[in-house]
Amino acid sequence: MTRMDAVVKPKTKRSKRFLEGRTPKLVEGVKTAMIMKGGNTSQCVTRALKDVYALKKPSAVLYKKKNITRPFEDSTSLEFFSKKSDCSLFLFGSHNKKRPNNLVFGRLFDFHVLDMIELGIENYVSLSDIKVSKCAEGTKPMLVFAGEAFDADGEHKRLKSLLIDFFRGPTVTAVRLAGLEHVLHFTAFDGRIYMRSYRCLLKKSGCRTPRIELEEIGPSFDFVLRRTHLASDDLYKLAHRQPKALKAKKKKNISHDTFGTKLGRVHMQKQDLSKLQTRKMRGLRKRKGGVTVEDQAGQAPKVAKEA
Questions:
Q1: Whose C-alpha in 21, 105, 230, 272 is 20 to 30 A from the C-alpha of 129?
Q2: Residue 229 pairs with which residues in a beta bridge?
Q3: How far from chain centre, in Å, is Cα 204?
């Protein structure tokens, strides 16, 4: 058993709260990403990591020192830093002659690498190169994916899922119109992935609904897909499993028709209709020493005898 895996007992209330924050929860918070660079990096990779960190803040940790590691050959270093900083996402930047300007997007499950995809930067425009006003820090972006490859190819499907996990931000119940101001657009075309960042401008349109214009704010990337490390179907399914406490309980005897109308089924015991109280009418009352109209209904008429 390693030192990180050993059971740690808290000695103070502060350390107890810290360890309770690391325990699994029914509803997890925002996923945090660690952003680090390898032993050899170029100026393009360094600026790209800082720009992605600016988009991901405050749910990100930026490591400024170089880390001599190769994620596709040995991922123990990434798993160590993930457990230390409590991060389930990572972005690793490197540069060499064989794979220049390299970015590796990945995510972890139970502090072990689940899947990671390597993207090469072919064209890059940084945030500082575009001189326009930017979105506020921590703005939840709207993610748009275009291209048939995101729905047809297996690697592009996993890349789409990974990018959604990386940039989605916190889960919210309601969003005001003015808060929808940041758009991240990903396009898969001709073997490349184009990432663009826009700011939504609400203009006057003469009616209640505003006219929307998009203004590019950066960063802008042209990626080429390189190496991939994808989890098996069983492990990927296990990572998506939800606790039983979060699953909605099925309500019995309730259904919906094609129009969405809610229908309910009521089960009742068998009733004795002979004792059912009906409307009281004067003609149905019982008479003293005589027969009622109900008794006469099933009898033949009688002929009076002569005196």
A1: 105
A2: 116
A3: 33
Phi first, then psi: what are they for 236, rounded to 5°? -65, -40
Q: Please state the φ and ψ torsions of residue 78, each to the nearest 5 degrees.
A: -65, -40
Which residue, 86, 84, 55, is CA-closest to 67? 84
Q: Where are the domains of the chain?
A: 29-240
Q: What is the pLDDT of residues 238-285, one digit of tens each?
A: 888 877 777 777 788 888 888 889 888 888 888 887 777 777 777 766
Please give, one letter per residue, the 3-state secondary structure of 207-248: CCCCEEEEEECCCEEEEEEEEEECCCHHHHHHHCCCCHHHCC
29-240 carries CATH number 3.30.70.3270: no
Amino acid at site 185? H
Rounded CA-CA distance 20/37 in Å is 30
pLDDT digits (tens, 9 = 90+) for 117-161: 999 999 999 998 988 888 888 888 999 999 999 998 889 999 999
Residue type at position 165: D
CA distance 63 to 35: 6
Tokens representing 211? Answer: 């006219």
pTM for the predicted model, two decimal places: 0.74
CA 112 to chain centre: 21
